[in-house]
């Protein structure tokens, strides 16, 4: 196998026209350069230099290896530049998983900011499945937005915000006349389910249990827009988080809840063993600023 470092020494000799000049340029002794070229000739199985007067010139084989050495040198320089860009966050790829209600309020402004600050970074966005944490833990995603707490080995959760639930009532409901209501005021009401089983539903049930009752679900929608439709039709009341009320039905009333106020905690999940990434750090910071706005 040909030694790349020796090929680069040969190229220096060829471009300088002499072993002595190449040695001065590279900071070696002439004998050291001659030894390395001789070793390269042994590896190549042919002579690479021939003497001409007081200087040297490459043989056909020497010229061939010199051209490859120059190409390798350019590739190494390009690799160093590309590596520097990657480590500085100027290039790279970021894979993000998110759930729908976090998309418009958190992910969209964070992505816009990252593209402005790190235009060379490619962002792979995907709506999350039921459990995105395995993707983060196993390296298929750099970050996932999740509702927690949902601590899991290999994953670190970074708190972004607490998203409070609001009461959604038929517009003509007697409680709609109030500016805010107690959670216990809904204890005897029929409820419209708005969540899939999981941490979001658990946040509602925990708050209701603290208030001393279990909601009586009469219909399940598992979708905020559909749940509002059922409420508008007078089938019951529901709770929807603030981030989930992007499109409000005209025939419902939305009121704050007191004593206790249900809330879901939204986190950014990253791999515990992930190495520092400027683009990832910038994206997390953008998410935090979006959550605070």
TrEMBL record:
Designated name of the protein: LysR family transcriptional regulator
InterPro entries the UniProt entry points to: LysR_HTH_N, LysR_subst-bd, WH-like_DNA-bd_sf, WH_DNA-bd_sf
The keyword DNA-binding is assigned to this record: yes
Keywords: DNA-binding, Transcription, Transcription regulation
Record-stated family: Belongs to the LysR transcriptional regulatory family.
Pfam families referenced in this protein's UniProt entry, alphabetically: HTH_1, LysR_substrate
Phylogenetic placement of the source organism: Bacteria, Bacillati, Actinomycetota, Actinomycetes, Kitasatosporales
Gene3D superfamilies: 3.40.190.290, Winged helix-like DNA-binding domain superfamily/Winged helix DNA-binding domain
Domain HTH lysR-type: 2-59
